[in-house]
Amino acid sequence: MSRESILEERRREILELVSSHGFVSIETLARRFALTPQTIRRDINTMSEMGLLQRCHGGAAIHSSAQNMAYSTRQVLCLEEKRSIARLVAKSIPEHASLFINIGTTTEEVAKALLNHAGLRVITNNLNVAIIMSGKEDFEVIVTGGEVRTVDHGITGESTIDFINQFKVDYGIIGISGIDADGSLLDFDYREVRAARSIIKNSRKTYLVADHSKFGRNAMVRLGHIGEISALFTDSKPPASLVAMLRENGVDLHVV
User: Fold this and answer.
1) Do residues 216 and 56 lie in contact, with contact meaning Cβ atoms separated by under 8 Å?
2) Secondary structure of the chain as H, E, C letters
3) CA-CA distance, 239 to 237, in Å (whole number)?
4) What is the pLDDT of residues 31-52, one digit of tens each?
């Protein structure tokens, strides 16, 4: 078999593994093919440029605008980056503040980082966030109505939106699946997006938490524009065009 055929076969297998698992680390692929991480990284870079998969920190993920990765995959993807972002957000939230916290693995890390605060009042459509924060005796945690998704315990629906619209809080903390080059905030579930829109509308300040893998990532439902938020918290400086948009719209940028 020629070198080109071996290379093509390996990349086909990489694509199958990523499609099957949602995310596969460079370390796992290097062991699987008995190659150096540098070689695997070159394969991933090439396949990412071809639009076959998404290059992420430490590995590769599925490239789809219609379907998100599995919740279990998202929980471990860029976990240390999400924790660093969460700690940075926590420093910007004062004691005794009122908050919306929406669906997402990054917002769940924010919930954990806020456990050292005092007297927070939290409204959430994320049962995982509610469980994390309800253990603090001096926190008031309110869960929205709506339909609970089995995949990640997020709550969506018309009753979710109606519930959120009853409140006006100090801070809305939202996650996102992708940020397009034109500044569009993108997600996969239109029902989740509608709840997030209500959070933005009813928050005095909206903090978007997004790790670097979200920059340029595709998703088919538009939540809004990056200029609508108050601040972006991330682990890596965004592309220059996004930095310019943030500056033009008066959006604060916080990089870990």
Assistant:
1) no
2) CCHHHHHHHHHHHHHHHHHHHCEEEHHHHHHHHCCCHHHHHHHHHHHHHCCCEEEECCEEEECCCCCCCCHHHHHHCCHHHHHHHHHHHHHCCCCCCEEEECCCHHHHHHHHHHHHCCCCEEEECEHHHHHHHCCCCCCEEEECCCEECCCCCEEECHHHHHHHCCCCEEEEEEECCEECCCCEEEECCHHHHHHHHHHHHCEEEEEEECCHHHECCCCCEEEEEHHHCCEEEECCCCCHHHHHHHHHCCCEEEEC
3) 7
4) 999 999 999 999 999 888 776 7
Sorted by where each starts, the structural domains of the chain and their CATH numbers stand as 3-63 (1.10.10.10), 74-255 (3.40.50.1360)
Q: What is the pLDDT of residue 255?
A: 97
Burial class of residue 252 in the structure, from the number of CB atoms within 10 Å of its CB (0-12 exposed, 13-18 middle, 19+ buried): middle
pLDDT tens profile 95-114 = 999 999 999 999 999 999 99
Q: What is the pTM (predicted TM-score) of this model?
A: 0.77
Assigned token pair, 236: 């890596």
Range scoring the smallest mean pLDDT among 14-23, 32-41, 155-164, 186-195 = 14-23
Which structure tokens are listed for 47? Answer: 């396949």
